[in-house]
Structures are given as structure tokens and as C-alpha cells.
Amino acid sequence: MNALRIAVAVIGFIAAIFWTWYIPLICILALSLRFRAWEAIALGVFMDLLWLAPGAGFHGLPLFTIFAVLVVWAFEPLRKELLS
Prior knowledge:
By secondary structure, this protein is an all-alpha fold. It has one domain. Helices cover about 75% and strands about 0% of the residues. It is built from five helices and no strands. The protein is flat. The relative contact order is 0.16. The model has no long low-confidence stretch (mean pLDDT about 85).
């Protein structure tokens, strides 16, 4: 199971650099549904650091980081219920 977790995280990080934005988003969702995923939050921070433009106003918000934290937090009860 750790191999799957590592594979999804690596796909997310590679997708953040070379592919489009929705593949890391899917990886964040997949990681947070199955695991207590600190990787999802790290992937969100990486996406924001990689793609945020300095001084962009509203678009300067770290949206991927906020999304990752909210998803990991929101899916905690579901993960406890389904995986226990």
C-alpha cells in the first residue's frame, strides 16, 4: 500500500511540473481519500510555490494549499469510517 501512496504522490509532483493543473488536483483528492496524506498538503504547497505569480491580487492566494488542507481535514471522518 505504501508503494501506491508513493506512486500517486510522485505522479502528482511530476504532473505539477510537466502536465496540467488538474492532475495534481486529482492526486490530492486520491491521497486524501485513502491516507492521512501529508503528501497532499506538500503537493498543494509545491503547486502554489511553482505557479503563483507574486503580487497577483486575489490570484495570489495559495489556492492549492488551502484546498489540500480543507480536503484532508474534511475527509478525515469518511476515512475513519471506511478504513477502520
